[in-house]
Amino acid sequence: MVTCRSSVTGIEKGVPADKLQFRPSVYGLIIHYDQILLNGFRGGYIFPGGGIDPGETLNEALEREIFEETGLSVTQETFLHFEEHFVISDMAKVETYFHTFRWYFLCKDPVGEISTIGFTELERNHMQEPQWIPIDQIRNLKIYHPHDPIALIQKALVNSVK
After folding, report:
1. What tens digit of pLDDT does each residue of 70-95 get?
2. pTM above the 0.70 mark?
3. Which of 24, 41, 111, 129 is a good FRET partner for 71, with 20 to 30 A between their CA atoms?
4. Radius of gyration of the chain (CA)
């Protein structure tokens, strides 16, 4: 049995290992001037990104996921963080359990117009259009993330001024 946790509800559940799906994924922290781009999600926010398709590199998946979820093209700047989690995904009609590997990168130089045109049907049902959020407001936000999202944003800020 593996303990899986929902990053939205915080509920934990014991799940047999053979019920887990492996899901490597990549996320971008897009900093532009004094703002960060976040996707709206269930009354809070999430970092744009998602699953890596078979045969994709981390960079290819990051560029694709950022474009699909924001409409923007970005430059991958700096590796920030890696983490491993056992997750309950309650976005679909049936609970799904994942063993996740997650890579986080600082991204810069956003080009294009913010859009939801690349959202999947599931994303259209659960996510809202990305928003530029002033960095000085992040402590007041609910950011769904299994790790400490404020520490991750602070690390991105330190790396963005180098």
Report:
1. 999 999 989 999 999 999 987 767 88
2. yes
3. 24
4. 15
Query: DSSP label at 140?
Result: G
> Residue written as tokens 């981390």?
58
User: How far apart are the C-alpha atoms of 28 and 85, rounded to whole Å?
Assistant: 18
HSE of 34 in the Cβ direction (CA atoms, 13 Å)?
A: 4
**Contact indicator for 103, 27 with CB cutoff of 8 Å:** yes
Is 86 in contact with 95 (CB distance < 8 Å)? no
Nearest to 126 by CA among 22, 32, 50: 50
Chain centroid, CA 157 distance in Å: 17
DSSP per-residue codes, 84-107: EEEEEE-SSSS-EEEEEEEEEEEE
